[in-house]
Amino acid sequence: MVSLLGSHFAKRLISSGEYRVRIIDQSPKPTFPEGDLCHELIIGNLCDPSTCRSAVDGVSIVCHFAANMGGMGTIHEANEFRIYAENHFMTLHLLQAAIEAGVKRFLYASTACVYPLHLQQSVEPATPLSLSEDDVYRDATSESPPCPQGLYGLEKLSTELLLHQASSKVSVRIARLHNVYGPGGTWNSGREKAPAAMLRKALALKRLGAGSSHSFEIWGDGQQQRSFLYIDDAVDTLLKLLASDYSSPLNIGSDTSVSILRLSKLALRVARADSGRVSFSFDTTKPVGVASRNSNNERVSRVLGWRPSTSLDVGMAKTCAWMEKEMERLLSQRESGLARETLLLQCLSSKVVDLKEEATVFAILLPITSRGGTSPQSCLSNLGKFAQSLSDTTWRDLHSLGGKRYRVAIYLAIDHDDEFLLADQGPNKAEALLRSHGFSDVTSLICDYPRGHVCSLWRDCAARAFDDCCDYYGLFGDDVSILDEGWMRKMDESSTESPSTKVSLLLYRRWNASRMVDLRLSNSIGGSDDARYAKQRARDWTFDTLTNAVSSVDSHIRSFNPSISPTLTLDVVIPCYRVDLAIISNILALQHSPTLTIMFIIIVDNPSSPQILKLETLYGRRPDVRIRVNSVNLGASASRNRGMSESSAEWVYFLDDDIVPDADLLFEAEKVIREHPDAAGFVGNTVFPKSETIFQAAVHLAGVTYFWDIATKIEDDVPWGVTANLIARRNIKDGIEYDLRYPKTGGGEDIDFCRLKREVSIKRGGSGFGAAPLVRVTHPYWNNGKRSYWRFYMWAYGDGMLVARFPELTYRDYAPNSAEYLLLAIALPFIVLPLGDNLLSSLYLTAYLIAKGLSSVVLANVLHDIYRHLWQHPERDAGLNSSIKSGPRFWLALVESSFIRMSSELGRLKGAVDRKQWYCIGKRFDWFAGREGDGPKREERWNNVQRLVCIVLIFRFVL
Hints:
Elements: H1 4-16, E1 22-25, E2 40-43, H2 49-56, E3 61-64, H3 80-101, E4 105-111, H4 117-121, E5 130-131, H5 150-166, E6 171-177, E7 180-181, H6 194-208, E8 216-219, E9 225-227, E10 229-230, H7 231-243, E11 249-252, E12 257-259, H8 260-270, E13 280-283, E14 294-295, H9 298-304, H10 312-332, H11 337-347, E15 360-368, H12 376-399, E16 406-415, H13 429-436, E17 442-447, H14 454-467, E18 472-475, E19 480-482, H15 487-494, H16 505-508, E20 521-523, H17 541-560, E21 568-576, H18 581-588, E22 596-604, H19 612-619, E23 625-629, H20 636-646, E24 651-655, E25 660-661, H21 665-675, E26 679-687, H22 694-701, E27 725-729, H23 749-763, E28 767-778, H24 790-799, H25 802-805, E29 810-812, H26 818-832, H27 839-872, H28 887-914, E30 923-925, H29 935-958
Parallel strand pairs: 1-2, 3-4, 4-6, 5-14, 6-11, 7-10, 8-13, 15-16, 15-18, 16-17, 21-22, 21-24, 22-23, 26-28
Antiparallel strand pairs: 9-12, 19-20, 24-27, 25-28, 26-27, 29-30
Helix pairs in contact: 1-7, 2-3, 3-5, 6-8, 6-10, 6-11, 12-13, 22-28, 24-28, 26-27, 27-28, 27-29
């Protein structure tokens, strides 16, 4: 974060209008909230030389305020080496980059901690000690070199010497700052200095009330002496120093010291707390620093003509006013009185920062077994590969300076009866191997579970890691190799808004609080294939288990902030045989709102497709895309079922792999789901391009695509929808899948699925399938629009099963349909004609009658369809999206539509015969499922009666 000093200094430069200011920081959110701080912001780590080179490119002045620092809660002995290393490399790289870039002036913020420790510890209690610039080397000899306050002070002194050495290459300015404080600084993190800490405690005591029994905490005995400089005075002096030609170190601080006890009482006074009723508690176990120190300002007064102008009382009052607003802001974010009181109680105590403990800890949960491999030793070979991959891919995160710190903790789960791994005394073989790869934090858990219960082993590891306060939990197998470097920081960066405790991806997905990272693994054994053990699968966990967990988290979050609600989750399932990358890319490019969480699940049903590799290459690493390849061609229904089993969303959206979606498809889908949350699902609007050929127009005139855009014709409780564009509720454990008894190529399975889903929804108090006319896709004509009746024949072959499956939605027709007439035309001559003495004559007559009957049936159906379209119901074709609406080509399309309809009826009859469902012949399925009353039934019956009359008349009088 931009420091207190850096933010105020930058703001002053900006307001002067004389400088163009560039800030380099690790965070885009500075602590100083008011006004502009810079013209340009670079996010980066100054311990990285490349960041330093970017920082100084094209600049003439560098003001170096960056440091790993804080009060005595931070710069104590336990953190010294880390602080020294980060501050040293930060300055070293920045100075080198500045010299190489030709920077003219380099201002460095040093510290009063450079002064010798023995001078500041040898004074009597409560005795001021004024330190001048030359005191750094007082009493120093070759045998007793300068000894600053800790490694923090030593690094600052070393940098002063480094800058002196470089002063021939860049003009340097060195400011030895003494305890700068003021509005905008850290005050509640453990890195705050004494003024902020005392004000925080005073404000907290004030809010807890005069009758509070809590004491005012002071580290040490309170007699240690310090001087404190208000931020505005510090900035004034730095600007003067920057403009001067003075290159030696210069004190910038107050020459008036005060005891920490007196500072505490001043904090109580400016906070308007009842100091008369406050007791002080002195904690001598905490770091306290030196006994006494204040700035000798003789040289800065002489060189710059400067003296501090803000008294401690005034500066503390200004800082208190700012901090009170900050505390109020934090308290307002707590919903309950208990939460606010807890925060205030925390403010009463200062923290000791342990930089090692501040590291983000990744728990590696690792069940291991020596069974099932080629030999017991093979498990150690696999584990060695894993350990090496873990070391290779985490080295930078574990050893880098200046940024976030990471640590790895490994939790091994070993079966209690694994004699190979547990054979030796001391650490088991697996633990010993991991330690040999440099991992020191390894915990072994000896577990007693039935073989194959890997989740139980993982659960024990996770519980132990949770007790150890780990931040992230990685579930691995001992035969996995991690391929991508930097996965820890990528995961941490991608989950900055996620809970820092145990995160379940699918659970917190509902609040957009879980992320997937670009991380590749290789699995030598197991994975999606067979493992070394019999997998014990946790079935159906994506239903009640996940739903109940979401409900619990939702209740908990709403207790703190009722305005926060989970996102809608929708998984798009695409059964894919063609693997048309252009079409798939178009679907995967769909945008959606931030309140909708999407996962695209592609089920490739053609394992020999040459496009699979390219599909994996293009999209296999996208976290919102899951690609699965069937081992054999299973068909669309089985692929959709696999897609559903892969899903964990509330809703699943079925799209065909040949559709072109509207750009706002997912926005409209979310809208209709939110408007009707109790629906069984939604039927989208599937349209076709404008028909340009006779065959394409005939397809529509035949009625086989009538239900594709049914969402524009029925407003609610749509009887069914085609799976090219269908949304269904998934988070109800109803056991409903696409029935695999229907043909692999499709036909009837969509109706079956929708009717069963609707039934379950109605029983549980919901509604049926809603119409979603704005959820629109465009479906191309099959086979590039080339003529083929086979698809319609096979659809009908399958949907004929619906008569037996849903007898309540069927009815007996008054007359046969075209297929049944054709069957009768072939069969009746053999039945009614006697064989006779003249066999040749009998066969001729039979053939004649069959030909005449078939011709009569076909001609009657064609003429009747022409009559229906041109005279009986011409209005039904008014909206036909076709360039063929009249003339000879339209008449030809009408004729061909009859053949398409008859091929469908033939397929339906053939299916009934093959299934030996003789009782289904003559029965019809109500495609509207009663939604339109008896109208469709009456029309179908009347049409077939009319065709019967036509057939008889043609047979008798025409042919």
